[in-house]
What we know:
Alpha-Beta Plaits; 3 domains; single chain; binds uracil; alpha+beta; disordered C terminus; Structural Genomics Hypothetical 15.5 Kd Protein In mrcA-pckA Intergenic Region, Chain A; 8-stranded mixed β-sheet
Amino acid sequence: xxxxxxxxxxxxGIASRRHAEELITAGRVSVxxxxxxxxxxxxxxxxxxxxxxxxxxxxxxxxxxxxxxxLNKPKGYLSSxxxxxxxxxVTELLPTSLGRVHPVGRLDFNTEGLLLLxxxxxxxxxxxxxxxxxxxxxxxxxxxxxxxxxxxxxxxxVTLDDGTRTAPAKIELLHDxxxxxxxxxxxxxxxxxxxxxxxxxxxxxxxxxxxxRIAFLTDEHLKPGHWRLLTxxxxxxLMKPRAKKKASLTKAQGxxxxxxxxxxxxxxx
Length: 269
Ligand code: URA
């Protein structure tokens, strides 16, 4: 997006807007190699090379443009940025003004719940890596009522159909009827269809799956299809290395309410 040069220079943290104007009129600013001295001149940091005192300011602008979105994914959307089959994409639930973002990990087409999206690859790697112990909590409805011994197997870790072993998980039975059970499952891993495959293995297939928490993010009031931007404080907190601790299924300590840390960025569809 094109913006006035003095605004871009100030956003990059190089000078105040007023000082930036002085730098421009003094001939110390160039766009694509050409010195610019006119104050109304605009440039697009995504396309133009902007230099102040001979130094490119685009990298500073890029870091400031990182975007972190929390979406309540509805069923029937693919966690991907493209699909040869033309199915609806989670990215279509966001306005194009946010720029290109990708999902942080994956929720299945028919899984609902919290999904992060960002343009920050480092953030994605951190949140998805099992070693960083970022809690992902799912509410799971299964066929029948799994016996305690079967749940115990899943808690300890099981070998999936592709030969990989799951890490220990926290699993709590929330409620059951003669037909179904509702459970809460806490994982740090995100293997493809992990929850569904775990419950298939014990003969109690998943009927409904919803992610209800990522680390301290719960956002119960974010309706399906709605989203919000994370605050800088939330991003920092998500990427903080976790001290080895006993994972707890109950809400994360100090968890924010749905709107508690929203800052200035409340959004819906
Ligand atoms: N596990 C699954 O099986 N599916 C999801 O979408 C997320 C975790």
